[in-house]
Amino acid sequence: MTKERDAGPLITAQTGWEESFLIGTEVELLKFAENIISSVKSAKEDEFFGEKTKTSNFYNATGQYSEVLFDWLVVTKNQEQTIKLSQKIQGL
User: Among 54, 63, 69, 75, who pairs with 8 as Cys (CB 3.0-4.6 Å)?
Assistant: First the structure.
């Protein structure tokens, strides 16, 4: 039997209002923020889509009913690299 994901927090996909929402209890949202900080601090040198970055596993960061589920957290060198990687991923 597989273990179910935690129930929250949840990220909704973009709505007809062109908005997305991060929804959860105060405890769930603070845990999500702590997961981000921990993943950034533990990120290791890596190559991501041909770019030298730092990456960290970011599984189970959101709840089982979230429309957005993460696989990796990627730490870029600068905003230019962030935009370049975003364009590469969106072009898939």
Answer: 63
pLDDT at 6 over 90: no
pTM comes to 0.81
CB 78 within 8 A of CB 85: no
Question: Are residues 37 and 59 in contact, defined by beta-carbon separation less than 8 angstroms?
Answer: no
20: three-class secondary structure by DSSP: coil
Rounded to whole angstroms, the Cα distance separating 91 from 87 reads: 6
Residues 8-35 pLDDT 10s = 788 888 777 778 899 999 999 999 999 9
60 vs 38: CA distance, rounded Å: 13
Cβ partners under 8 Å of residue 15, min gap 6? 21
